[in-house]
Amino acid sequence: MSIESNTALALAYFPAFRDRDTQWWDAHIAPGFVRHDPGLDFAVEGPAGIRKLAEVLHGGFSDIAYPILNVVAQDDRVLVHLRQVATHSGEYEGRPATGTRTDIEVMDLFRVEGDRLVEHWALMDNLNLLKQIGAVDA
């Protein structure tokens, strides 16, 4: 695959995740996919792992948007710098819904093989997110 197609695949991940597009996940998330994410207390592996992640995130947040800020691609890697903007509309990290509109920065590095995402390193500003929903002191 080309750098352009790898980039397009990585960018397509975000609307598919936002829309919980399980058909896209099954087609483009490798069975052996692994998400490395120090902010999670569970493993995200394969399409089933993405389903679990979506269940947790969408259970706590709605009206999710992923504005893309920067994209850098080289060989089989695509780095996406973006924001996650959402409404805290359900329980998250033990904190009941606040209705707060949250806005955090995210860095996602994907590794691509063929037409599938095979690895993902995620760094989210979880501390800022928890501050915004009142789970920790600002």
Number of β-strand runs: 7
Average pLDDT, to the nearest integer?
96
The number of domains is 1
Q: Major sheet: size, sense and barrel closure? A: 7 strands, mixed
Structural class call reads alpha+beta
C-alpha Rg, in Å? 15 Å
Tally of alpha and pi helices: 4
Question: How far from one another are the termini?
Answer: 44 Å
Q: Hey, roughly how much beta strand do the residues contain?
A: 35-45%
Write the H/E string, N to C.
Answer: HHEEHEEEEEH
CATH top-level class: Alpha Beta
> Can you tell me the residue ranges where pLDDT is under 50 for at least 5 consecutive residues?
none
Annotated CATH topology:
Nuclear Transport Factor 2, Chain: A
Fraction of residues in H or I helices: 25-40%
Molecular structure report:
- With 138 residues, the protein is of the alpha+beta class.
- Helix content is 33%, strand content 41%.
- The chain contains 4 helices and 7 strands, in the order ααββαβββββα.
- A hairpin with a 2-residue loop joins strand 4 and strand 5.
- The model has no long low-confidence stretch (mean pLDDT 96).
